Amino acid sequence: MTQASDDKKLFHRIGELSKTLEVPASMLRFWEKEFDCLKNLKKNGKGERLYTAENIENIKTIIYLVKTKGYTLQGANDYLKKNASTLSKNQLAIHSLIKIKAFLEELKENI
Question: Which residues constitute the domain of residue 91?
Answer without folding.
Answer: 3-109
